[in-house]
């Protein structure tokens, strides 16, 4: 299974927009996704692919974790992956996944490219985006399709459209819950929130949607605007109080695995494991 790097915010940047690419490394996101899909007109994709290796290397040299969102469909995806795969690539975002064979095909192409280019096979993680009712119903199979899959992402705009609604809590909370369940069952991460990714001017609504996502078990979110980064980090941060509690729980744990108490509350194995997970998240957070 691919190790999740602990990204909380992943900022989309159009792969053909040099002005935004130049600013991307200074935005403060945990990772940037150079987008070859929705953000780039079909006629501009060949030029965007040609410029992609230099853009990925330049951002990575500045300390940015760089992913690339490829296009759905094998033919376009092969061209995208050929342009994207290199030593500076931190991951691939696979859109509109609906069937378990799709990430498996992507895995195979990536393995071939990694081998050809002297990279570690299996080293490039993949995030699969759930953006349709079909994808939602297949989320469990998708999450377990390949060890290369590191996370499932909720694609709120396309998913809400396919479900016949608008991207908000009423339409997306239950799908978000299903995505989180599927991801956790497969031992991978869930990222996203049950609201419009296009909302960057209503911080109160965004904060509420992020709080819901965090409560459902999501660990990060996709962003399309720098204004979303700080709220995302705040929502998925491990607080000082949580870290203090987790340290006290771990420090008090008996070596024989017996039940014990902290702050007048019983601590058994699931609570101890949650404390350890919080400490691990806190370590990743401090490393950023």
TrEMBL record:
A GO MF label: citrate (pro-3S)-lyase activity
Coiled-coil zones: none
Pfam annotation, one family: HpcH_HpaI
Domain HpcH/HpaI aldolase/citrate lyase: 8-226
GO biological process: oxaloacetate metabolic process
Source organism phylogeny: unclassified sequences, metagenomes, ecological metagenomes
Alphabetic keyword roster: Lyase, Magnesium, Metal-binding
Presence of keyword Hydrolase: no
Keyword Magnesium carried by entry: yes
Cofactors demanded by this protein: Mg(2+)
PANTHER family from the UniProt entry: HPCH_HPAI ALDOLASE_CITRATE LYASE DOMAIN-CONTAINING PROTEIN, LYASE BETA SUBUNIT, PUTATIVE (AFU_ORTHOLOGUE AFUA_4G13030)-RELATED
EC number of this enzyme: 4.1.3.6
Name the record gives this protein: Citrate lyase subunit beta
């Amino acid at each position: 299974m691919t190790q999740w790097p602990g990204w909380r915010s992943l900022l989309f940047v159009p792969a053909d927009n040099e002005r935004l690419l130049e600013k991307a490394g200074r935005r403060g996101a945990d990772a940037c996704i150079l987008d070859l899909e929705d953000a780039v007109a079909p006629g501009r994709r060949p030029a965007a692919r040609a410029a992609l290796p230099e853009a990925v290397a330049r951002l990575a040299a500045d300390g940015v974790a760089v992913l690339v969102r490829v296009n759905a469909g094998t033919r376009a995806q092969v061209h995208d992956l050929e342009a994207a795969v290199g030593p500076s690539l931190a991951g691939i975002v696979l859109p509109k996944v609906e069937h378990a064979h799709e990430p498996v095909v992507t895995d195979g192409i990536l393995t071939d490219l990694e081998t050809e280019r002297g990279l570690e096979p299996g080293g490039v993680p993949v995030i699969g985006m759930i953006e349709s009712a079909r994808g939602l119903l297949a989320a469990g199979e998708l999450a377990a399709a390949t060890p290369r899959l590191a996370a499932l992402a909720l694609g709120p705009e396309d998913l809400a459209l396919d479900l016949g609604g608008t991207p908000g809590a009423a339409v997306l909370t239950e799908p978000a819950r299903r995505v989180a369940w599927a991801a956790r069952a497969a031992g991978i991460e869930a990222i996203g929130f049950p609201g419009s990714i296009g909302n960057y001017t209503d911080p109160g609504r965004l904060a509420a949607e992020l709080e819901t996502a965090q409560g459902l078990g999501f660990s990060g979110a996709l962003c399309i605007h720098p204004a979303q980064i700080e709220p995302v980090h705040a929502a998925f941060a491990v607080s000082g109080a949580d870290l203090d509690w987790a340290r006290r729980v771990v420090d008090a744990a008996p070596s024989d695995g017996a039940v014990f108490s902290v702050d007048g509350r019983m601590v058994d194995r699931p609570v101890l494991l949650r404390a350890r997970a919080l400490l691990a998240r806190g370590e990743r957070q401090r490393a950023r």
